[in-house]
Amino acid sequence: MPQAGEMGQITTLSNRWANCRIGITGANGSMGRALTHQLRSQGAVVVGFTHGSIPSGELSTYHPQEWVRWECGQEASLESTLGKLDVLVLNHGINPQGRQTNKDINTALEVNALSSWRLMELFESLVLKAEPGTRPRELWVNTSEAEIQPALSPTYELSKRLIGQLVSLRWNNLTDNQRKALRIRKLVLGPFRSGLNPIGLMSADLVASQVIRQANLGLNLIIVTPNPLTYLLMPLTELGRMIYSQLIRTGSKSN
Fold first, then answer.
1. In the annotation, is 231 catalytic?
2. Rounded mean pLDDT of 217-228?
3. Is 121 a domain residue?
4. Is 85 exposed, middle or buried (0-12, 13-18, 19+ CB in 10 A)?
5. Which residues, including other chains, have CB under 8 Å from residue 169's CB and lie 6 or more apart?
6. Domain for residue 218, yes or no?
7. In this structure, are residues 145 and 190 in contact, taking their beta carbons and an 8 Å threshold?
8. Which residue among 62, 156, 231, 244 is the active-site one?
């Protein structure tokens, strides 16, 4: 819950994130901390999901108010926690850089794509089972600019393209009623400085502030990058995927 010193700030806020419970995977990373800071400053209660050790001692607004430790492959154990969230941000990932062994490929696919897909399925199922009239929920997925652009890491690019296409496929197959219950946003982010990319061109705080700004504007496709081509290519890619999906889809939209 929010700390006592924050209550005056929270009650005066009129933004959409005030008092929302927002879960962020990869909360110990640079982007996770930056998003946590932005959302907490707007009154959100942030639940951080991490594979590593949970920080102890006095924590700043760059740290979630609550922590949950989890492992890839054990997503089902998070059901009770996910069921209490208003927003789930899938932000965890690894970058093998130039490593391309079978082990590196399998690990990148598991962490960057398959675990996120399982969490997407689980969260969606919980949202769609909620009582009618329940507040709409949101699912944000950080796919990275590597979904459509080179990132000097073939294994990373492969895994990010997979999760990016899975998000697009699910996006295009939600029924109207499902869209009312669950809003999916895709975060396409350019190179920011982090443990995975110490030479990134942007700061994580700058990127996170732009992500929240675009979300406040109501955008589902959120792009933050210094590369102007991405602002052109990513919407065209999504449009092409939507048209392709609609042309070959058989039967009704999937459940």
1. no
2. 96
3. yes
4. buried
5. 241, 245
6. yes
7. yes
8. 156
User: Please, are residues 188 and 230 in contact by the beta-carbon 8 Å criterion?
Assistant: yes
**Considering the entire predicted model, what is its pTM?**
0.89
Distance CA 22, CA 35 (A): 10
How many domains does the chain contain in total? 1
Could you tell me where the beta strands, DSSP code E, fall in 30-80?
45-50, 66-69
The domain spanning residue 59 has which CATH number?
Answer: 3.40.50.720
Does the residue 255 lie in any domain?
no
Residue where the block lists tokens 């030479």: 199
Is residue 222 within 8 Å of 215, Cβ to Cβ? yes
Domain span at residue 102 reads 4-248
SS3 47: strand
Indicate whether 52 belongs to any domain.
yes
Could you report the per-residue pLDDT of 91-106, keeping only the tens digit for each?
999 888 888 999 999 9
Q: Which long-range contacts (CB under 8 A, 24 or more apart) does 194-201 make?
A: 194/29, 194/30, 194/31, 195/29, 195/30, 196/29, 196/93, 196/94, 196/95, 197/95, 201/226
Residue 98: count other Cβ atoms within 10 Å of its Cβ. 10
Q: How many CB atoms are closer than 10 A to CB 120?
A: 21
